[in-house]
Amino acid sequence: MSNGDKGWEFHLRSLSNSARDSNLATDPASDPSLLQSVNKLYELCKEEKNEDLVARVYPHINKLFQRSVASLSQSRTSNGLLLLAILQFFLDFGEVVLHDADPSLRTFCRLCLSREFADPVVAEATLEFLNSNKKKLLSSFPALLPQFFPLLLKLIAWNGEKLDKAFLKVFPALMSPASFLPLLSSLVDLPILVVALEKVERSSGSLIGSSIASIQKSTAPEMLLALMDEAYTGSTIADGGADSESEESSTIDVADPLFLELLKDENDGLAERHWTSPGMAAALQAAINTPQSDRMKQILNMTPRFLDTYFAIALHDVNDSLICALIPLIMTRYSTLFPDKNFSYEVRKRLLEFMLAAFQRSPDFVALLKKPIMDRLGEAYDSPAKMELALQLCWAIGEHGGGGASHKDAARELFENLELLLYENLSSSRLGLMQEARGSDSESYRKSSQSRLLCFVVTAIAKLATYHRELLPRARVSLGKVARSRISDVRVWKRARDYLGLMNEPAICLSVLGPSRPSRGVMQNPGTINWSEGGTKMVAHIPFYILGEQEGPPFHDFTFSDVIPRK
């Protein structure tokens, strides 16, 4: 015990002496022995389990924390490891000394991690600290990590795949009702965050030791002006000589909301991101025209994995109201992604899978979200991405009966929009995809896209009318026009003709085109025919060739008397 007493007394004297040393008082982290002393005192307190010892050590540890935080703006040494060691002491012994660790944790994030997230040693130690204390953080400080998720995204975006596994373990703790919606936008924009961070580094040097979040408060905004000028116009202030600066200063704000939104440290809600602005288009075009850095390649690979975790947690733990609010955001972001082909494919695949899974779990979302759905249908002409989204929404409208039997008004409005989309394409062969499909085969591409759209719309109209019988007369009129049309692809009007034939057999039509789940009061499962009713209902014209995509006589060699039970 005497040796132990001498040990902790020695380390206590080290902390006390550092406060009197003029050099160490202003930059405690410059003395590596202080970190060793903090770690040793922590270990002794854990081993001894002596509250008196903890109470004697705490004042020295707390004063060291305050001095370290105060010296951050002038320090040339990394303070991250020292502060993390002190925070570990606060977390484990805070109840003994009545110390609330929440302000200390927030101070670390705002003043230290915001300056040192680019330091690979500090980044790795931070994730290790968060993982080892995850349960305590979630139980005692549940709002901490959701508030600082933008800072942790900067950490992983800059440090890359070597911290991928550690970050994924922390990731679930970033999600809360307050962070759920803005977190999706930040995840899909991780490549653009890398672009912004790399531009800051090229303009101002190393990211370590300077707080990007406070850049708008700088008294020397030249670096930010140069950065935004390069991102928004593809040029630099230096390129234009002396006159260029005065010209660009009038058009570029040092507190540009897009720049600040990308590089913020804390979650301040779901902010609008101006991805359609000419400046953003120029920045994305510049990113396309330059070779991808290793950091960019890594974030392009990691982002789909982060989205997998995000959506898995959303479907399992998040309530319906938040998921319903998320779907319009998914619709908006579906066509506004970083323009890398593989990245866009992987992200859009996951966005669609989640959206359709949400509709499958709660079909009434289709009715509740009729306005954004109708808006997206109206944008089907704008781009291939918006076309694919419109196709999937058409499928969801038909598959889930416009929201179900209790949402007849919404179903009627969705049906009317499908009608409008159908008539627009029947009356004109124009499809607004020419901007992205220039070339010798643009006409065939246009016709193919229009045929796909019409097939989806025709099917959605038939399925919606099957679910809501009051829409059948209008559906017959619409499908009749398609069946008689010679403008459309032959596959389209033949499909419309087949659906019209199915509608003459209500029981079979409900089985083939009905909802994916039995409606209220109907026990029949989807995709089946109640053969026991064959003696009283007409089933002789079952269109087997539709199901097998074949024409001509049926290929079976049995009669209906073989499969319909006799009474």
Automatic annotation (TrEMBL):
Pfam families: SPG48, TPR_AP5Z1_C. InterPro entries: AP5Z1_ARM, ARM-type_fold, TPR_AP5Z1_C. Residues 167-517 form the AP-5 complex subunit zeta-1 C-terminal TPR domain. This is AP-5 complex subunit zeta-1. Residues 30-154 form the AP-5 complex subunit zeta-1 ARM repeats domain.
